[in-house]
Amino acid sequence: MEPVKVGLLGLGTVGGGTANVLSRNAEEISRRAGRDIIITHASARDISKPRLCDTSQMKLTENPLDVVSDPDVEIIVELIGGDTLSKELVLKAIANKKHVVTANKALIAKYGNEIFSAAQKNGVMVAFEAAVAGGIPIIKALREGLAGNTIDWLAGIINGTGNFILTEMEQKQRDFADVLAEAQRLGYAEADPTFDVEGIDAAHKLTILASIAFGIPLQFDKVYCEGISKICREDVEYASELGYTIKHLGVSRRTDNGIELRVHPTLISRERLIANVNGVMNAVLVHGDAVGPTLYYGAGAGSDPTASAVVADIIDVVRVLTTDSENRVPHLAFQPSKIQDMPILAIDDIETAYYCRLTVDDRAGVLAEITRIFAEFDISIVSMVQKELHNSQDEKCSIVLITHKTIENKMNSAISQIQSLECVDGEIVKIRLEELDG
Ligand code: HSE
Questions:
Q1: Res. 388: pLDDT tops 90
Q2: At what angle do helices 366-376 and 408-419 cross, to 10 degrees?
Q3: For the segment 30-75, what is each residue's pLDDT rounded down to a tens digit?
Q4: How many angstroms does the Cα of residue 104 sit away from the middle of ligand 1?
Q5: What are the residue ranges of helices labelled H in 190-332?
Q6: Is CATH 3.40.50.720 what the domain over 4-135+303-338 is classified as, yes or no?
Q7: Please, are residues 278 and 246 in contact by the beta-carbon 8 Å criterion?
Q8: Read out DSSP for 302-365?
């Protein structure tokens, strides 16, 4: 049988990795797919640049439209990122009846509904395993392996750069900027690293996971998103003393009132396996009603790990090239006509536990004033410790406390009343805490 011809858009970190994995594992891949797979045509912004992979068998161009319109190419692999040119190219490829494999989370999170509907009309596949959690086959696990379950919730460390930064800050007391520069050098960080640090990248990925888990449309604009740039060493240290670690989590939960969709720094008990996922590694915890909690762990970024997911998608497409398009696994796991528009909860309406740190006057009655306000809002405190402030000249101390679960707007109201007390100095720190106990 003729080899399947692939057109590659982008020869950077992931594009180079994809070409390398395809050629290094060509024999194993062919045994699995039933056909040889070769990249015949590739585009890059500057084709004279030295590459990490062998391009000698590829026709190279600086115009990606040449690849998308190449009549010999059956599968387009989009690895250029961004969501403007990539959207145009992917829609063009679909219109030209080519299957698409992409690692582009921004593209899928923002325009996936439109792209999948175009793909369905044209009878082609759009595969996007590499868009979430790099090399971890989490899309496949959620969409196929857990298809018998009603998914209750999921929570994931889905940005490698953010996790790398938090881990290095906690374990090696390194500076934020220094760790971020290393992540950029290693090819983990996004072109705009604020996407990593401010949670936008994680929000793209959470949008995709939640759609597949709950059968809802992709709704990136409804994700509550808070980054890690305000996390300070003090809170990392106090959390650790109380038995917690701070991770940047994407959380999505089905509730009676709608779906929670949120990305923020989160305290997690050290006893949870996911609390021990460090460095650039990613992990996603999924709770299904039948299976209970399941955990998926692996490299969330980097050349070869991301290529592992891209190549698996290419093989999946090759395996179904001749099948009837109606009988393929649906893009978002549920039949397109059965996608349900469930409400997405505003952050004020979510329910979780909290860690708070307050700087207060160190005198009689202060604790009583604070706990009275929590009691008024029916917020129950799990534990509370007082910390001396080493540099304080003027009899101040820190109060660190952890609450039971409550509704976010109650917590915000309590904090705003406590903030206005005379004994409170500076801004109260609030970090959400998840039990993740099933
Ligand atoms: N910048 C992303 C991360 C790359 O650090 O996880 C993989 O999506």
A1: no
A2: 150
A3: 999 999 999 999 999 999 999 989 999 999 999 999 999 999 999 9
A4: 11
A5: 194-197, 200-214, 233-241, 303-319
A6: yes
A7: no
A8: SHHHHHHHHHHHHHHHHHTTTS-GGGSPPTTSS-GGG---PPBPPGGG-EEEEEEEEEEE-STT
Q: Is 299 helix (H, G, I), strand (E, B) or coil?
A: strand
* 185 Cα to the center of ligand 1, angstroms: 13
Q: What is the mean pLDDT of residues 325-340?
A: 94
Centre of ligand 1 to C-alpha 392, Å, is: 40
Total Cβ atoms within 10 A of residue 95? 13
In CATH terms, the fold of domain 138-298 is: Dihydrodipicolinate Reductase; domain 2 (3.30.360)
Q: Which residues line ligand 1 (CB under 6 A)?
A: 134, 159-161, 188-190, 196, 201, 300-301
Among 108, 158, 159, the mutation site with the greatest number of ligand 1 atoms within 8 A of its Cβ is: 159
Do residues 58 and 39 make contact, with C-beta atoms less than 8 angstroms apart? yes
1: burial class by Cβ within 10 Å (0-12, 13-18, 19+)? exposed
The reply to whether 347-434 shares the fold of 138-298 is no
For the CA atoms of the chain, what is the radius of gyration? 24
Tell the CATH topology of 347-434.
Alpha-Beta Plaits (3.30.70)
61-65 long-range contacts, CB within 8 A, separation 24+? 64/9, 64/89, 65/89, 65/92
Q: Which of 138, 188, 247, 304 to mutate to test the pocket of ligand 1 (most atoms within 8 A of CB)?
A: 188
Distance from C-alpha of 287 to C-alpha of 295, rounded to nearest angstrom = 9
Q: Is residue 360 within 8 Å of residue 418, measured between CB atoms?
A: no
Residue 205 among the catalytic residues: yes
In the chain, domain spans:
4-135+303-338, 138-298, 347-434
357-379 residue pLDDT tens: 999 999 999 999 999 999 999 99
Q: Which of 105, 110, 205, 222 is catalytic?
A: 205
If you average pLDDT over residues 155-164, what whole number do you get? Answer: 96
